[in-house]
Write a structure and sequence with these properties.
Blueprint: H1 3-26, H2 28-43, H3 47-51, H4 60-66, H5 72-83, E1 95-104, E2 107-115, H6 116-137, E3 147-151, E4 158-160, E5 163-166, H7 168-174, H8 178-182, E6 184-185, H9 188-191, H10 196-207, E7 212-217, H11 219-233, E8 247-250, H12 259-266, E9 271-278, E10 281-285, E11 294-296, E12 302-308, E13 316-317, E14 328-334, E15 341-352, E16 355-362, E17 366-367, E18 374-375, H13 376-389, E19 393-402, E20 411-420, H14 425-439, H15 441-446, E21 457-460, H16 465-472, H17 490-498
Length: 499
């Protein structure tokens, strides 16, 4: 099929979806109520549905009173049984895929159930909507005259007990509809390669002569790929290789540290579109050119609730009560059987008509500059093991990313004030890095052959450095604490200046 014809047909088909998007924008609360009742109906005969008497729940008020909040630690007992082969526990259709992502306090990795409904009605529907919203805003787009270069997960699916485990991106690629596969590059075999250095070369070899019109992937990984392509082709701009490139669809980490580097190599006429998807579901999509907030997608089989962050015993609310510029933790119930599940992300609403959001962070301290999703529990556990091994102790510490540059991989920079310094700081650094990899699978994957991240760096802080900083900031007192993990370099640069 000629790509020009495919572009015309696909664009027409996607624009028909705009009617449904406009519908939930106009009637958001009604659409969300319908989603909730459908979820309850589907799961009423499951073990979870019977336990909480789903058949008796006819509105949000009853739903919020009868069903307790959950998070991964509390819900894992159900997931574990599902992994072992039991069915009809928390969702009525069989669960055979589990998205593997970074660990919690209790485990190196966590496993999020992915149902056939969440694949079709959430993730793949969202993939079409990303394209739909883009072409609706860019009438002269020729997006489908070429292919999208997708940069997926770094590990293949593996099978155990007739279940499949791996990155969400690997699950999506493995089940990709034919129409999407036709419009994507590289092919599935290359996309699912698990050795990143070999995968990088294969992607380059297979896409240099393709007509690439869009890019999709996590910024830190995409930047490495594009810089390598420019180096190999002795070019300074990607448009010298793919002249019809229109847009980069990105998500997964904060884009701000990378945007200037992308503008430098992509040029000013390539648009950036942000998406908000996670192992638990696809939540929001940028729906306007040159805006960095995202439309909350309300008809994907996900029911949304919100809880104000940093407030004593805050009320849990649905969309009918949210306010602008308030930091909320997200709670979801989904068509993969997660019920009132706190995903750990926080957002603020930038618009209530329609509902648009910005991601503001995590409910737990974390760093996610390169897709490593390092949470405070990982950092503390790794540090404590390392201190014990080296017979050392510390006064205070903080960690920040050093971002990927044109020639260098990124890394984590640790500013540590030791009470008892280790005899060999290089060996201490090496052991701390290894312990972080052992406690966090995403950190380990980003450390593969130093491509995305190289070994962490330790800066030894002078005596009372952190105290001096608190004094400088007029923050002396028991309620003020040093942030342990930071996603920017503001704090660490101030400490370096004082050190």
């Amino acid at each position: 099929m000629p790509f020009s014809f495919l572009n015309t047909v696909t664009t027409w088909f996607l624009k028909k979806r705009m009617h449904q998007i406009e519908l939930f924008k106009k009637y958001p609360l009604e659409v969300q109520n319908e989603v909730l009742l459908n979820l309850l109906k589907n799961a009423e005969k499951t073990e979870f549905g019977k336990k909480y008497n789903f058949s008796s729940i006819k509105n949000y008020s009853l739903f919020s009173k009868k069903i307790p909040l959950t998070d991964y630690e509390t819900f894992f007992k159900y997931i574990e049984r599902s992994i072992k082969g039991e069915s009809n526990i928390f969702w009525n259709s069989a669960i055979k895929w589990y998205a593997q992502s970074s660990g919690t306090t209790n485990s190196k990795s966590k496993f999020i159930p992915v149902s056939k409904e969440s694949l079709e009605e959430c993730h793949y529907k969202a993939g079409k909507d990303v394209l739909c919203l883009y072409v609706n805003n860019n009438k002269n787009s020729n997006l489908f005259s070429g292919k999208s270069l997708r940069l997926g997960g770094s590990k293949k699916l593996y099978e155990s007990n007739n279940n499949y485990f791996g990155d969400l991106s690997a699950i999506l690629i493995d089940n990709l509809p034919l129409w999407a596969e036709m419009l994507s590059a590289p092919n599935n075999e290359i996309s699912l390669m698990d050795k990143w250095d070999e995968k990088l070369e294969a992607i380059i070899d297979s896409t240099l002569n393709e007509n690439i019109t869009s890019l999709a992937g996590v910024p830190s990984w995409m930047l490495i790929l594009l810089n390598k392509i420019l180096e190999e082709r002795n070019e300074t701009k990607i448009k010298g290789i793919w002249k019809n490139l229109e847009v980069y669809f990105h998500g997964g980490v904060n884009f701000n540290p990378y945007i200037n580097q992308f503008k430098s190599i992509l040029g000013n006429d390539v648009r950036f579109y942000e998406t908000y998807n996670a192992s638990e579901g696809f939540f929001a999509i940028q729906d306007r050119n040159d805006h960095n907030d995202m439309l909350l997608m309300l008809d994907y089989g996900i029911y949304f609730e919100f809880q104000v962050v940093d407030k004593l015993n805050p009320e849990i609310i649905n969309l009918s009560k949210v306010k602008l510029d308030t930091n909320y933790a997200i709670i979801i119930s989904t068509n993969a059987g997660l019920w009132r599940y706190k995903i750990g992300d926080t957002v603020k609403f930038t618009s209530l008509n329609p509902f648009r959001i910005k991601i503001t962070g995590r409910t737990k301290s974390f760093i996610n500059a390169f897709g490593e999703e390092l949470i405070i529990e990982n950092a503390e556990n790794a540090l404590n093991k390392t201190l014990l091994k080296h017979n050392s102790s510390i006064v205070e510490y903080t960690v920040a990313p050093s971002f990927i540059s044109e020639k260098n991989s990124g890394f984590h920079q640790w500013m540590i004030e030791f009470e008892k310094r280790p005899s060999n700081i290089s060996k201490f650094s090496e052991d701390l890095d290894k312990n972080l990899q052992n406690s966090n699978s995403d950190y380990k994957s980003k450390r593969f052959k130093n491509i995305t991240m190289k070994r962490l760096e330790i800066i030894i802080a002078k005596e009372k450095l952190f105290l001096d900083w608190l004094k400088f900031k007029n923050k002396l007192g028991g309620q003020n604490k040093i942030p342990r993990l930071c996603n920017d370099r503001i704090l660490i640069e101030e400490l370096i200046e004082l050190n």
